[in-house]
# Entry
Amino acid sequence: MSFATIAFSIDAMLPALPEIGHALTPQNLNRAQLIVTSFLLGLGLGTLFTGPLSDAFGRRRILLGGYGIYIIGAVLGYLAGSLELMLAARVLQGIGAAGPRVVAVAVVRDIYSGRQMAKLMSFVITVFMLVPVIAPSIGAVIITLSGWRVIFVAFVIFALISSIWFSLRQPETLPVEKRRKFQLGPLWGGVKEVLANRSVRITIAVQALLSGVLYAMLSSAQQVFEITFDQGANFPLWFGAIAIIAGASGLLNAKLVIQLGMVFLVRSALICVMLISFSLLVIIWLDLMPARLYFPGFLVFMTSVFFMIGMTLGNLNAIAMEPMGHIAGMAASIISAIATVIGVVIAVPIGLAFDGTPLPLMIGVFCCVALSLGLMQLIRSDSA
# Structure
């Protein structure tokens, strides 16, 4: 649930964007999209600090403190009377959500390492992938029954459940004797140590590329369904079905990762998506796709991308964190911050290139996946 806070905070807002636009920025409805990117901005900023803070003060304090900030942001969002205050509230929510996101990974690394960590992260990614099944529907139901502002009440409830459960069930995983002082010198030394590791740099780059793919899919999917295929009304249902199928990827990865290794599974998933996207690109570009198969073909493409995300992100996190156990919080922060910020930078032009067809999205996905596959060839697979 801690890891899924981000997905819930984004996906539950998607059905509300048109109404928020009419309520807070009627002169320029497109500015409502900033509600999503402002949250990601706060998330990127927050991840720079939450890891080092958790290394200095312990995991529990920072995770619970992050949820506290998140709840304050949600309350401000509920009360917001202007778009500017709404964006500030979403940035604050993003900063708060960074606590659960980063600390959750650090806690897992405190207890597990290598393929065992990858196995557990597979279950985490499964939850992360299944949240989009219900989040848009929750948002739509809330809007219908109570209006878009009550979505922020749902955020508060979600955060309270997660934080209370964590405080009751999860003991502190970082002993006092292993904590690092929150000082500029040690922090800068940790940054240099993380970025000096070649395999960590490579996995950060791959995570950034695949995060860009994920963000581009999320930001463009509704437009493609509504404008290209006239399926806007059924979008939550199709999106939920895709998420259910993609959610199985984490369970499959957990079953295979011990025997086959993380690098092998990441490469295999990337190859499959690259072949699917390239084949569809050629078929559509040459106008060989029968009209009745156009939409099913896009569903196959979208499902394969989300399935690939479930097979890769957990493994990539485990590969990057493997040599960083002694500074797990710092490493989780740096890795998440860089991957998030660069992922947003990659996703924005792909989304803006939308021309009424899924071709720009497919081209962007193919290029990112192909480059990721090339980078993965630089990582040794014998130990991962």
Notes: The domain at 5-170+185-376 is CATH 1.20.1250.20 (Growth Hormone; Chain: A;).
